[in-house]
Amino acid sequence: MSPLNYKVSHFVEIDSTNTQLVAAARAGAPDGTVYWADFQTSGRGRLDRVWEAPPRSCLMASVLLREPDVVAERLHAMTGIVALSIVEALGDLSVEGISVKWPNDLVVGSDKLAGVLAELVENPPRAAVVVGFGINLSYAGPANAQATCLERLTEQSIDRAGLLDGILTKLGDNRRLLHGDGFNTYRERLSGVLSTLGQVVTVDIGEHSVTGRASGLSPEGHLILDTRDGPLELSTGDLRRVRSTGQ
Ligand code: BT5
């Protein structure tokens, strides 16, 4: 999908681009509808957490992807495909050194630069997912978060609308990797930017947590954790703690 096929709406202020786009999707908004905002009064992260940023300090956008042919097992990859598109678009702007911390953070070292929030609107066979992302431009995150921003990294100001265009163009190209054999390319490209691989991590999944070494992505794109009890495949979770191998 080229940028010309997107239907982009800009808001000066909104509660949450994800919340409003999910509502629009339920009311029949078409594939490629994009909402982006200067300021969110109720920006959301995963698990009822908050995404916060002062006005115009962060690129906050959500895109509706209707993927009628995507199989249920690959829905989780909507997060990865957007994360990958962000890394690639930033690469085109010569912003290097950004990696993906599984499953939904973009980081520089251990500082969070951006987060992705995917929300399912409709299940296959008419799969529809709203994928939102917040990328810090001039705001390095709330005090309690170990975070950074693009201006700190690049010492240049990056135009939000231009960055959004770049990401949407990459996404228009990359979303075809959700289908058929393209998924192998998706796994390879995501593995290439996934800093979680090789690390010993503790992942919270609901009430439970598991610890192991992240060793790769399964054929379905799930994170493989090598635990004491053998390999475990995770499609999502909250990566709470990271320590280096051998500790
Ligand atoms: C995320 O959740 O990282 C997903 C964030 C998605 C935000 C976008 S903005 C456009 C769209 N509309 C929305 O309402 N949301 C999406 P999670 O992994 O749960 O991380 C949330 C945590 O990140 C918070 O608990 C804070 O610790 C931290 N945080 C909040 N604001 C931040 C910021 N600007 N920069 C870095 N970290 C932040």
Structural commentary:
The protein is of the alpha+beta class and 247 residues long. It has five helices and twelve strands. It has helices spanning 17-26, 77-92, 150-154, 160-174, 182-193, and strands at residues 7-14, 33-40, 58-66, 99-101, 105-108, 111-122, 128-136, 200-205, 208-217, 223-227, 230-234, 238-243. The strands form two sheets. Strands 1-2-3-7-6-5-4 form a seven-stranded mixed beta sheet, with helices on both faces. Strand 5 (105-108) and strand 6 form a beta hairpin. Bound molecules: biotinyl-5-AMP. Biotinyl-5-AMP binds at residues 16-18, 40, 43-47, 49-53, 58, 60-62, 104-105, 112, 115-117, 132-134, 136, 139, 141-142, 144-145, 147.
Largest β sheet strand count, sense and barrel closure: 7 strands, mixed
Q: What fraction of residues sit in β-strands?
A: 25-35%
Q: Regions with pLDDT < 50 over 5+ consecutive residues? A: none
Give the CA-CA distance, first to last residue.
46 Å
Q: Give me the side-by-side strand order of the main sheet.
A: 1-2-3-7-6-5-4
**In which range does the helix fraction lie?**
10-25%
Question: How many beta-strand runs?
Answer: 12
| Bound heterogens, unique | biotinyl-5-AMP
**Overall pLDDT confidence:** 93
Sequence of secondary-structure elements: EHEEHEEEEHHHEEEEE
Sum up the overall morphology in one term: globular
Radius of gyration: 17 Å
Derived structural class: alpha+beta
- The number of helical runs is 5
